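Troubleshooting: if your tokenizer reports a length mismatch, compare against these two reference records.
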Amino acid sequence: EGGSKVLDPETPQRKMPFCTASSGGIFAEAQVLNLTPPSRIGTGICFLDHMVDQLTSHGQLGVTLRCGLVESGTPAASAGSEGAKRESPEPPTVFFTPLRDYATGLSGRPHDRDIAIACGQALGAALRLTVDDVAKASTAGGGTGKALFCCPLDEAFAEAKIDLQPDQQRRGQCTIMLE
């Protein structure tokens, strides 16, 4: 048997917490579940929504990511810590003002930088929690803690190898090969 352990999508998973972050007047929260699409994404920037959707479909992840303008006096206004976690069995009711879709003609885009920062921090923290959870499950069941993903495209072939338990020499390294 040896080899790597495959996590069955039918296996019930523990609920992952929402990770939160803020930048300027923008608040974001994210949750990532392994092998559990569909996802719910609403950042207010169509292109960012599309790119996160690509991550979820190719990575077979269930991502919930949303952000909004923080209203004073709400729980979000005082939550401003980067990468904070909050346990929740279901996505919470919206307690911040949702951002409008910028494609509808909103003049000026003063919050784009803050949206990118807050969403990136919240999504990064949520992805770290999921990777840690998968690494623990993989090695606890006698697996190797390694994963391989291949994506054939029209005129290219992408391959990603992830080693969640690298030896000390390779820890923290990223190798990129273009052929």
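Reference record two:
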Amino acid sequence: MTPQVWFITGTSTGFGRVMTEHVLQNGGFVVATLRKPVALADFAARYPKDRLLILKLDVAVASQIPPAFQQAIDAFGRVDVVFNNAGMCVVGEAEISPEEEARRLFDTNYWGAVNVSREAIRVFREVNPAGVGGRLLQNSSMAGLGPLALFGHYVASKHALEGFTKTLATELDPSWNIKVTLIEPGFFQTEIVRQAKVVPIHPTYDDERASEVRDLMAAGDLPGDIEKGVSVIYNVARLSDPPLHFPLGGDGVVAMKTAGELLVTTVKQYGSWSQNLLKAEMGKAAITIKNAYQ
């Protein structure tokens, strides 16, 4: 396979940094973006500029995204894989987590990923050779599949990203050959939780679980091996027909199974309640919608 050109966001630590090196070690080319390029000074010293382009990019600032892609195109002529990885986290009960922090989180986790995705689709379709397309990997989370106590706004941002991505995937013309996959990791050894904004415990929620979760997150000792996880993601990007959803890690698999089983159980128990709810008289548009979705 021809070496691929990867565009990766959030490469200072975690999945982004490890994926950058993994791609380079496997003969690929990387456009590594991050808010503070000095964090990749060691990579810049080890890899030549014709293999690794390091760019300053804050995905929360939409105006910075198109120029970053243009620099990637100027350097390598195309972009084959976009790994939407930049993210942040807020730890605290949903009721008391500050709105300001939640909005800042959404600016990165949701809007940043959305705006990178939009530009990625344009480049795959209009810059890459016709029919070549590209791969869009969204680094979502098992938190995009179900609830996770004390991570309410992080969970919400990942659910939003999942909804956007699934819709985007249905809108793409198959002839463009653009493949989209939601990577849904469980708890891997990254810095995102340790660097998270931790909201002080509110007296109403001052119980053993609230303290235990905060202590575990502060310890930063998470079970998933990020090197192994990145190797799997890399292989997913090389599949000819990748899945829309890809749970990463045993806890990611459990989260997906639990979410699916809950939906099936609910439909079995209450699905009949939604029968015979159609209007007595329907126009052409209503009939078309009914036939399309029922």
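Descriptive notes for reference record two:
- The chain has a mean pLDDT of 94.
- The radius of gyration is 21 Å.
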